[in-house]
Design brief:
heterodimer; A: Rossmann fold; six-stranded mixed beta sheet; 22 strands; globular; B: mainly alpha; ABC transporter involved in vitamin B12 uptake, BtuC; 16 helices; about 75% helix
C-alpha cells in the first residue's frame, strides 16, 4: 500500500506557544491510523491543518503523492478529506437527510428535492452499512446515530480520507463496538481513516498503525495490527504506548495492598427516589460502606447511579429509606450539614457541578468551606488564607498552571479534576463519594487521582466509587456492587469479580447465570 | 506531568484566567479601554450627526461644557443628576452578579419615593439626624421589598424575574397614582404629597446648586457593594450562585435564599435612588402621571457600560448624568435637538454591548504583533 498522505515538518505556532513542532505523519492508503497523545499534545491542531482550518507556519503536505496547499475546509473536501469533529456540527431541528446533504443539496437552485435527498442518504447508508433513519430529526436520535450522520455527511461529500476526532469520547461501550465495525467496513471499501484519541486500549483494539505525539512532536510511529506491514509485527503494549505518550513510565496498574475494613460508616437502607422525569429511579437500595475500603458501584449509565449520589449528598430528596453517616441519620439533612458531618463529594460533572468556572482556582478551592475559618471570619473573606490554601493544594496535587489566580475555566480538564479531588480530599472526610473521578482525564492525571483514592482508603477513609469505566472499578475497588434499574443487583469482593460477570450483571443478567456463563 | 503539555494548547494559552501582577493590570486596562473607546467614538458620532444636521458642533460641545462645568452651580447640578444613576446602576449590577436581570428599577424607585416622602412629612418630633435616617431607611426598605417580591417568586416558584419586575413597575406606578389621588395629595392642584419636614432633608453641600449629601450616600453605597461582593461570605455565595447555581447547590449554598436576598438588596439600591431624589431634591413625592421617569431603566445602561463593577458604575453614571444634563442646554444654546444626546447614549450602549467589535480589533493587533 502506498501513502495516501504525507505531512512533513509541520510547524504551527500560536503566539509564543508551539502547538506543532516539525511533525511528520505518513498515512498509508486503506489503513486505520491512530493519532495518540494527551490533551494539548497537538493532535487536533495537526488535523485542523490537514482539514484547512489552520495554515501551518512551516512544512509540506503531500496528498496522493502531490504537494497540496489546503487553504480551507472546502479545498480539503474537494481533495477528498473529510473530518468528523468531536463536537458534532449538526443542526438539531433538521432531519438526518437534510443535515447530510446540507451544502450540496439535490434539486434545482430554488427547490430542495427532499425525496431525492432521503433516497440518496438511504443508498449511501446501505452502501456503507451505517444505519440511520433519514427522516428522523437529529435532535431526537441517539449520540451514536448522530455520529453516523456525521460520518455519512463526510462520505456524501466524497471523502476518501476520514479524520475522526476522539470519536469514542461520547459513546457507550456498545456504541463503541458498533463504531469499530463501521470503521473496519469503511476501510474494506477503500477509505482511509485517521482517528484521534488519548485512549490506549482503543489504539490497540482498532488501529493498524499509530503515531504518538507528545508536546507537539511525533515521538514514534508503530505497527499495531500488522495489516499492510512488510513482515510480522509485535504490537506495543499499553504500558509502552503510555510511556511514549506521557514521556515517562506510567503505572497503569494501581498499586494497592489488601484493605483493612473497619466500622461501617455509611449505611443505606431501602432508599427510593424519583428521577428528573418523575419516574422511580431508585427502587430500594441497600448499601453498607466501611471505613478503610473502596466500594465500587458498577453499572451502565442511567441505572440510578446519579440519583443515588444525589440522594447521598443531599442534592435530591429520597421518597423512602434511610441514610446513616457514622450512625447518625442524615436522610433529611441539607448539603452543608452533611459536609460538616464528614461527607465529601467529587461530582460526576466537574464543569456543571464541581466548579464555578468563572471563579479563580483559589475561590474554587474553598467552595463548600468558604464560610468557615480560616477562609472567612465574621463574614469577611480572608483572601490571604484562601490563596495560601490554594497554593498548598496546587503543590500537593501538581495542578498546572500553579497560579491560584487563574480562572478555573481555563484549566485543562485533567487539572480541573485534580483541583476538585484536591479540594474534597483536603476536607479530611469520613466518607468520600467519588463519581466518575477520572472521566475525560489524561493518563498521567488518572494515575495521580487513582493513587490518591487508594491513599485515602489506606488512611482509614471510606470511598464510594461510582464509575462507568469497568476497568476503573476493577482496578480500585475492594468490593463491587452492580446497579441495574435502580437496585443493587449483586455485590461481591473484588477478587471474585471479572469483566464478564460484571458485564452480564450490568446488562440485567443474574449472578448464577453469570457464573454459569449463561445469560438469563 | 500533564501541565507541561497543557501550555502547548493554543486555545488555552490565550486566556490564562485572571492574570497576575502586571498582566492583571494590563487586562484591567483592556477591560476599561472598551467602554472608553465606546464613549469617544459615540461622542464623535454625535458631533458628526450635529454637523450633518447643519448645526455647529463646536457650539454643541461648548454647551455640554457650560451645562456641566461652566460654574459652581453647573458642577453641582451635574452631580445632582449623576447621584440617582449611581444607585440604579449599582442596583442592576448587583442583581446581575447573582445572575438576575432586575428591570424593576422604575417600580422600586417609585415605591421608595412614596415611602420616603410619607416618612418625611408624616413623622414629626424627631431630631434631624434621626428623622432623615428613618426616611432613608423607609425608602430603602420599600424599594427592597418591591425587589424581594419578584426575587422570592423567582427563588421559590421559578417565575422569571424579568417578567415579574416589569409587571411590578406598573403596579408601583398605578399604586402611586391611586394613593396620591385618594389619600396622600397635598392641598392644591398638583398631584404631589405634602412637603417633607426640614428635619428629613438631606443637607445641601454646594449651594447655590441643589447638590446634597445623597452623593456621598451613593459613593458609600458603591464602596459597600464592592466590599460586600468581593470581601464577604455573602458576596462569595451570591457570585457563585450567579456564575453557576448548580455548583453553588453542590457546595451547600442555599441558592433560593441568595437569589431572594440579591433582589432585596438590588431593590433597596434602586429605592435609594428615589429616596435621595425626594429627600435631597424634590422635597416631596411628585406623582409620575406621565409615566416612568427613567432612572431605573437608565440604570441598566449604566451597569452595562460600567461592566457591572461598582467603580465602573460610578464612572458610567457620571457620563450619563453629564449627557442628560447637557441636553436642554445644547438645545437652547446650539439649537441641537435633545434627541442628539439620546443618539450618543444609544451609540455608547450599542458599542459596549457589541464589545466584541472593539475586542477583535485588539486581538488582531496582538496577532499581527506576534507574527
Amino acid at each position: 500500500m502506498g501513502n495516501i498522505l504525507e505531512m512533513r515538518g509541520i510547524t504551527k505556532r500560536f503566539g509564543p506557544v508551539v502547538a506543532n513542532d516539525g511533525i511528520d505523519l505518513e498515512v498509508r492508503e486503506g489503513e486505520i491510523h491512530a493519532l495518540l497523545g494527551e490533551n494539548g499534545a497537538g493532535k487536533t491542531t495537526l488535523m485542523n491543518i490537514l482539514y484547512g482550518l489552520y495554515q501551518p507556519d512551516a512544512g509540506e503536505i503531500r496528498y496522493k503523492g502531490k504537494p497540496v496547499t489546503i487553504t480551507d475546509p472546502n479545498r480539503a473536501i474537494e481533495l477528498g478529506i473529510g473530518m468528523v469533529h468531536q463536537h458534532f456540527m449538526l443542526i438539531p431541528p433538521f432531519t438526518v437527510a437534510e443535515n447530510i446533504v446540507l451544502g450540496h443539496e439535490p434539486g434545482s437552485k430554488t427547490r430542495l428535492d427532499r425525496a431525492g435527498a432521503v433516497e440518496k442518504v438511504r443508498a449511501l447508508s446501505q452502501e456503507f452499512g451505517l444505519k440511520v433513519d433519514p427522516t428522523a430529526r437529529v435532535e431526537s436520535i441517539s449520540v451514536g446515530m448522530q455520529q453516523r450522520v456525521e460520518i455519512l455527511k463526510a462520505l456524501y461529500r466524497g471523502a476518501e480520507l476520514l479524520i475522526l476526532d476522539e470519536p469514542t469520547a461520547v459513546l457507550t461501550p456498545q456504541e463503541v463496538q458498533e463504531l469499530i465495525g463501521i470503521m473496519r467496513r469503511l476501510v474494506e471499501q477503500g477509505r482511509t481513516i485517521i482517528f484521534i484519541t488519548h485512549k490506549l486500549k482503543e489504539v490497540l483494539r482498532i488501529a493498524d498503525r499509530v503515531t504518538v505525539i507528545r508536546q507537539g512532536r511525533n515521538v514514534a510511529t508503530l505497527d499495531i495490527s500488522g495489516r499492510g506491514a512488510p513482515g510480522p509485527v509485535t504490537p506495543p503494549t499499553e504500558a509502552e504506548l503510555a510511556a511514549l505518550m506521557v514521556g515517562r513510565a506510567v503505572s497503569l496498574k494501581v498499586e494497592k495492598g489488601p484493605a483493612k475494613p473497619g466500622e461501617p460508616v455509611l449505611e443505606v437502607e431501602g432508599l427510593e427516589c424519583l428521577g428528573s422525569r418523575g419516574l422511580p429511579a431508585l427502587k430500594g437500595v441497600n448499601l453498607t460502606l466501611r471505613a478503610g475500603e473502596i466500594l465500587g458501584i458498577a453499572g451502565v449509565d442511567g441505572n440510578g447511579q446519579t440519583e443515588l449520589i444525589e440522594c447521598l449528598t443531599g442534592l435530591r430528596r429520597p421518597t423512602a429509606g434511610r441514610i446513616r453517616l457514622r450512625g447518625q441519620d442524615i436522610t433529611r439533612l441539607p448539603v452543608r450539614k452533611r459536609f460538616e458531618l464528614g461527607l465529601a463529594h467529587i461530582p460526576e460533572d466537574r464543569q456543571k457541578r464541581g466548579l464555578v468556572l468563572d471563579f479563580t482556582v483559589a475561590e474554587n478551592a474553598i467552595l463548600g468551606r468558604h464560610y468557615r475559618s480560616p477562609y472567612c471570619r465574621l463574614g469577611v473573606m480572608a483572601w490571604q488564607q484562601v490563596t495560601a490554601h490554594a497554593q498548598r493544594l496546587i503543590r500537593d496535587f501538581d495542578i498546572r498552571p500553579p497560579l491560584p489566580g487563574t480562572r478555573a475555566g481555563s484549566l485543562s480538564g485533567g487539572n480541573q479534576q485534580k483541583l476538585i479531588v484536591a479540594r474534597e480530599i483536603d476536607k479530611e472526610p469520613v466518607v468520600l463519594i467519588a463519581a466518575q473521578p477520572t472521566r475525560g482525564v489524561d493518563v498521567g492525571a488518572i494515575e495521580a487521582i487513582h493513587r490518591r483514592l487508594v491513599a485515602e482508603r489506606d488512611r482509614g477513609r471510606a470511598v464510594l466509587l461510582v464509575s462507568l469505566e469497568l476497568d476503573e472499578i476493577l482496578a480500585l475497588s475492594d468490593r463491587i456492587a452492580v446497579m441495574y434499574e435502580g437496585r443493587i443487583v449483586a455485590e461481591m469482593p473484588a477478587e471474585e469479580a471479572t469483566e464478564e460477570t460484571l458485564g452480564l450483571l450490568m446488562a440485567g443478567g443474574t449472578r448464577s447465570g453469570a457464573e454459569g456463563g449463561v445469560a438469563r | 506531568m500533564t501541565g507541561t503539555v497543557e501550555t502547548r494548547d493554543p486555545s488555552r494559552s490565550q486566556d490564562q484566567g485572571r492574570p497576575q501582577g502586571r498582566n492583571r493590570l494590563r487586562a484591567l486596562l483592556i477591560e476599561a479601554l472598551v467602554p472608553i473607546i465606546a464613549v469617544v467614538v459615540a461622542l464623535l458620532i454625535g458631533l458628526i450627526f450635529i454637523a450633518i444636521t447643519g448645526r455647529d458642533p463646536a457650539k454643541a460641545a461648548e454647551a455640554l461644557w457650560v451645562a456641566n462645568f461652566g460654574s459652581r452651580r453647573a458642577i453641582g447640578e451635574a452631580l445632582v443628576s449623576v447621584t440617582p444613576l449611581i444607585f440604579t446602576g449599582l442596583s442592576v449590577a448587583f442583581a446581575f452578579r447573582a445572575g438576575l436581570f432586575n428591570i424593576g428599577g422604575e417600580g422600586q424607585y417609585i415605591v421608595a419615593q412614596l415611602a420616603a416622602a410619607v416618612a418625611g412629612y408624616a413623622i414629626t418630633g424627631l431630631p434631624g439626624w434621626l428623622h432623615v435616617t428613618v426616611a432613608i431607611l423607609a425608602g430603602a426598605l420599600a424599594g427592597g421589598l418591591w425587589g424581594a417580591i419578584p426575587g422570592l417568586l423567582k427563588a421559590y416558584r421559578g417565575v422569571h424575574e424579568v417578567v415579574n419586575t416589569i409587571m411590578m413597575n406598573y403596579i408601583a406606578l398605578y399604586l402611586a397614582n391611586y394613593l396620591i389621588a385618594n389619600y396622600l395629595k397635598a392641598p392644591g392642584a398638583l398631584p404631589v404629597t405634602p412637603e417633607i419636614l426640614p428635619t428629613a432633608r438631606l443637607a445641601q453641600i454646594l449651594p447655590p446648586s441643589r447638590l446634597h449629601t445623597g452623593l456621598f450616600l451613593a459613593l458609600g453605597a458603591a464602596v459597600l457593594v464592592y466590599l460586600l461582593l468581593w470581601h464577604t461570605r455573602w458576596g462569595y455565595e451570591i457570585r457563585a450562585v450567579g456564575h453557576n447555581p448548580r455548583a453553588a447547590e453542590y457546595a451547600g449554598i442555599d441558592v433560593p435564599r441568595n437569589l431572594a436576598l440579591a433582589m432585596l438588596i438590588s431593590g433597596a439600591l434602586a429605592g435609594l435612588a428615589g429616596t435621595v431624589q425626594v429627600l435631597g431634591v424634590q422635597r416631596a413625592f411628585y406623582d409620575p402621571v406621565g409615566g416612568f421617569v427613567g432612572y431605573g431603566f437608565d440604570g441598566i445602561a449604566v451597569a452595562l457600560l460600567g461592566r457591572n463593577h461598582p467603580a465602573g458604575v460610578v464612572l458610567a453614571a457620571l457620563l450619563f448624568g453629564i449627557l442628560d444634563r447637557a441636553a436642554p442646554t445644547m438645545q437652547a444654546m446650539a439649537q441641537v435637538p435633545k434627541a442628539t444626546i439620546w443618539v450618543v447614549q444609544a451609540t455608547v450602549i450599542l458599542l459596549v454591548a457589541a464589545d466584541q467589535i472593539i475586542r477583535s480589533l485588539f486581538k488582531r493587533r496582538r496577532e499581527v504583533a506576534a507574527r
